[in-house]
Structure prediction request, 498 residues.
Amino acid sequence: MNFNLKILAVNDELIFKPDSVLVKFFIDSDKLEKVVDDFFYSLGFGLSKIQKRNFLDKKSDELVYYSQIGEPALIFSKKIKIDKDFSSDFFRNYFAGLTQSLKKKNIKAVHVIVPSFTDLKNYFENETLLLQSMLEGIHLGNYTFDKYKADKEKPEELLFFIHYTDQKILKSAIEHSNKLMSAVNFARDLVNEPSITLTPAELAKRTKSELTKFGVKVSVFDKKELKRRKMNAILAVGGASDNSPCLITMHYEPSSKAKMKIALVGKGVCYDSGGLSIKPTSSMLEMKADMSGGAAVIGVMKAAAALKLPVELIAIVPAIENMIGGSSYKPGDIIVSASGKSIEVKDTDAEGRIILADALHYASQQKPDKIIDLATLTGACAVAIGEIAAGLFTQDDNLAKELINAGNRTYERLWRFPFWNDYKEMIKSEIADVSNLGPRWGGAITAGKFLEHFVDGKIPWAHLDIAGPAIKHKSRNYTEKYDTGFGVRLIVDYLMNL
Prediction:
C-alpha cells in the first residue's frame, strides 16, 4: 500500500494538524466568485487576482493554494461543473488520483469537506452513495502491488478527516467501505499475482486461508474428485499443466434467515497460453489475469461475510492452467462434460467457456434462486464496448435490470447484449451437442449461448463478460496501473439491494 490509511468521521469544525491539506469542492454557478472569496476569507487567506481569475476561468477546474502562514499547508480547490460530462464516478476518480499524488509529499492528514448532497442528488440515489464514492476513491488510489520490488518503502500513516454533518451516515459509510474495499483489494492482489506463484492449488490455498476467517466454508475438488464427478471439461483444459486443476467451492450462510440463495461462478484460468491454439507473446502478457472472474467471486464472498449480508451464497471457481504438452486437449476433440452434454473443440484458446460448462452445471445442481457468472471470456466483448464496461447476457429482464442498476450505482457499468436463440444456431456441431467456437461475428454472444447449454433453464441466470474492465486500462485514475478487481463492488451492491 502507498499509506497506512485511517479514515475518520468529524463534524464541520476545521481543526488542522501539522502537514495537513484541505480539499474543498465548489459548485460552478453565477455566485461562484463570492462563494470562493467567502471561503478563503473564513480561513484567513486571500487569493491573488491571478489565482482567482484562473480558477474562475471556464477552462480551469482546479486551484492548488500553498499557505505561507499556517495550516492547512495546502488547499486543493476543485470546481464541479454539473453538466453532461459529470458522473457519479467524479469523486471516486478524483480521490483515487489525489491519494496517489500525495505519495512522498510528507503530508500527514487530509481534511475533506463533503459538498452538499442537495447539489448532487440527481447523480446519487442517497447520501450514502455520495460518501461511498469518495471513500472508495481513497482506497482505490491507495492500492499498489509492489511485493516483488526490492526497494519498496515502509508505508507511512495518512489520516483522512471527512467533514460531514450527519455523523451516523458518515460513520456507517466508512465502516462499510473499509470492509468492502478490503475485499476488493484482496481480489486485486489475486489478479495481479504472477502465475508462477498463483497456481490453481495456491489460489485455492489463499482463498481458504482468507475466507475461513470470516466463517465462509471452503472446499476444494482435487483431480481425483473431479474425475469422480466426471468433470471432464475442467480436466481436459487443465490436463497439460504440471499444476493440476481443481474446483474451489465456497459457502456463506447468514446468521438470520436468508432472503435468497444465489450462486456465483467465476472463471479461474490462472494462466492461458491458448493451448495448442497458442497465443502470440503480446497476447499472453496479461493472461495471469484470466482468473479475474474467479478473483471477483472470491472477493464478493469475503465482502458478503464481513458485511453480514442476509443472503445465502454459493461460489464456484474452476481453477486451471491452459498449457501445452503431450496431454494437451486438441482441436477436433470431443469432451463429454459433467452434464452429459458433449463439446466439440474447435479452438483450445476458447477454454474458459469449456471449464465453466462443468462449473455452471454444478451450480445448477445446488438449486439456487439465481446464478451469475463472471468471466474474462472474450476479446470480442472488449472490441464491441471497450474497456469501460462489461457485457451482460441474460434472458431474464428483471435480473438484467437489477444488475444494470447496481452497475450504475457503483460505476462498474454493464451493457446488455442481444441474447436471442438465433445465436445458438451458430455453435451447432455435426458431431457433438455443441461447438466451443462459432463464426467470427458475434463472438461474445455465441460464447454466452455456449454457456447457456449448461445452466438449468428454470433458474434465472446472467453471464458477465468482464474481459475489458478487469484488465488495467487508462480510462480512470484507479484502473491505470493495476488489474482492477472489477465486479466485486458491483455484485455486492446487487446483493445488498435484492
